Predict the structure.
Amino acid sequence: MSPSIQFFNRESKILHLIRNGNEEGLVMLFEETRTMAVTYIKRNSGTETDAEEVLQEAVVILWEKVRAGSFEARSKLSTFLMGVIKNLWARRLARRRRETPMADEFDPPAGEESLLDGLIREEQVEAMRKAMSHISELCRKVLLMFYWEEKSMEEIAADLGLANAETAKSKKYQCRKSLETHLRKLIDYE
Amino acid sequence: MNNTSLHWTEDPAILEQFVLGKISPDHMNVLNEHLRTCPQCLHAVEAERDFVRSVRAYGRDQLRVRLREKLEHTPSRTVPWPHVLSAAAIVLVIVGLGIYGNWWREPDLIQSEEQLAGEKQVQGPPSPAAEQGAGIAEKRQKPAEGTGGETPAGKITTEGAKTEMRLEDMAKEEKEAQALPEQPVRAADAKEADHAGIQEGLWVDGTFIDIRSRDKGGRVVAREEAAVPAPAKKGEAQQSLIAAQQGKYLLQQLPENLLPMQQKQLRKGADAVPTKVEPTRDGAVLTAYTDLFDLRNKTVQGEFSGADSLIFIVDGIRIAYKLSSLPVKQ
């Protein structure tokens, strides 16, 4: 029986949940930051829907950072999230301005993705979504844990109940090959 | 790795580690050096980056979908304004009905009135004068309750100005009642009413103790010896004292001319202060009908003295009540 954990505050509970891969932590964080995000985005030419989309992106970024162990809790979670939201919203606004370009605004600023690059990227993501739907659930998990969450083979083996790191490594190889096969089929078909 | 100058990107493990940033900085420099001169390897690195980026984008996408689903099933903590306004309107209506219907009256008082009504039925139809007097006495409870912060907890507070007007109205009604031809109250009825009243804790007699006297200089001072109540019997009184001391007993005052007719006839002597007892959840409110002092719509909290006395001190005057005659908190 695991010991019950007492948290000093709600924030530490949220962080604990995210560290353990429990997505309820994200829901709690979303609900807590929602009002602040909506107020900010509405004040800056956005809508409630914009705010929810940006907030979702922001909590996913936080999730990635916490899961990768690169999140340093130097400020409140809401402060961190609002910082991310402001950056994301500024980028979105810039992209919107480019989508209705003036003659001298066609080229994206340095470091920004061009419209063409964006379209190519969206196509790639769509192809990946389709290919992923053709492989097994276990394969999806192995690949996401390795490439997205950057977990070690030992961690993947432990989390997925595989015999050892070597088994996990072998499984990852098979899964990637399978995914690439489906991706190639999709690209050839299109 | 000795063949880094010869298309290191052909090794999938190194290519993967390079893109995931899992290569030591020194080794990374060597690999980057080769990339500058090898477009084929650069293309392989770009392809691997696209693959990893797409897998990550897929992961984020899926997480967002799951988050959206969870949020749809989580009731939002923010309540829409129309709901807040509806709830506020409902509360206002309930409070309004409550004030209009006098819902927040002391339940004990309501019970006492019901008991009174029951007693009236048992005792048979009272004389018109007595009936009117009792009615006035019941109405008298309301102005006594409306004394603002001085009233016991749980009672309704009404406007002070209205209280004054009601008192005047009641005095007028009292005079009218007195003007009616009085019908003699049978001694047996009076005795029965007295007994029932005391037994039910509705009417008791306070004992007036004047502890004022004049010193040699003619000034009014309190006589300390008079303040000490008579020694009480031990035993049963002790038990009621313990219970009573945990309760709260308040005294309020009304002029003697407002004493109901029925009680006037039952009055025992000049030193007896007819007092109506209204039990509350944690004790009682005693209304003394006397002109010995004027509390001016204020209340005084009682003190327990000796083994069986409840004493109220007002301007050097003490009114004592036997605990055995008061309702004690159960």
The first helix of chain B runs from residue 12 to 19. Strands of chain B lie at 203-210, 212-214, 220-222, 248-254, 272-280, 283-289, 300-301, 303-305, 309-314, 317-322. Chain B has a mean pLDDT of 67.
